[in-house]
Structure formats: C-alpha cells, structure tokens
C-alpha cells in the first residue's frame, strides 16, 4: 500500500499533467494555513487515488468530469477542466458532443452555460496545445 507521501507525489504528477504546471503553481502559491490540508487531500485523493486508477484513461475521465460539472453548474471548475480535456486529447468536436449530450440529461440552461464557457475557453486557448494564446 502506498504511503501518503507516495500518493501525494503521484497525485502531483497527474495533477500537473492534466491541469498544467501554471495552474498547479498558482494553487500552491495561494495555499494558506486554512487550505493546506485541503490542497494535500485533493492532491492525494482526487489526483493520486482516483485520477491514477487504471480503469479509465484520462480522456474518458475528462468526459465524465465535464458531464458532472455541467450537470452541477460548477462553472469555474468547468472552465479549468475544459482546458484539461484539451490537454487530455479531447477535440473541440468531442467537447461539443459532451455538452450536447449533457443538455439532454442536465437541461438546456446547463448546456447554454457550458457552451458559453467553452466558447470563452476555446477563444483564449490554442486547441492544439491547450495553453493560453499568446497576447
């Protein structure tokens, strides 16, 4: 059984690969005494345990995450995970299909918001690299 430190290290590797170094560095820099345990928890559990499991590839995990975030209206996380989905290999066409599929089960207002957020993210992102466009 891996130690907490090994889980944290694995989680940090996956977190950086999925979200990008810049995002992770901002999260680390923003960590306070209040949020330190939370940052450690999400790194170990979400990224080290769940995202590292062998049952789904990262593309499939991104599809599941996008669907869930759309359904629950978590817009800030949706923007972040749209960028992650591109980094994980989803195409713009596949993202569009995830949002369309979500509309059937989560409702038109949820899909409207998701399309708006996706448009903003995609206009500011190079879909080939999933990195912000140069100014």
Q: Looking at the structure, what is the overall shape?
A: globular
Q: What top-tier CATH class of the largest domain fits best?
A: Mainly Alpha
Cα separation of the termini: 46 Å
Secondary-structure element series: HHHHHHHEE
| Extended strand count | 2
The chain-level structural class is mainly alpha
Task: Record the strand order, biggest sheet.
Answer: 1-2
Helix content: over 70%
CATH architecture of the largest domain: Up-down Bundle
Radius of gyration: 15 Å
The overall number of domains is: 2
Number of continuous helical runs: 7
Summarize the biggest pleated sheet: 2 strands, antiparallel
CATH superfamily of the largest domain: AhpD-like
> What fraction of residues sit in β-strands?
under 5%
CATH topology of the largest domain: AhpD-like
Domain Carboxymuconolactone decarboxylase-like: 37-120
Protein name: 4-carboxymuconolactone decarboxylase
GO molecular function: peroxiredoxin activity
Supply the key terms:
mainly alpha; AhpD-like; Decarb_PcaC; 135 residues; 4CMD/NDH-1_regulator; two-stranded antiparallel sheet; 4-carboxymuconolactone decarboxylase; 7 helices
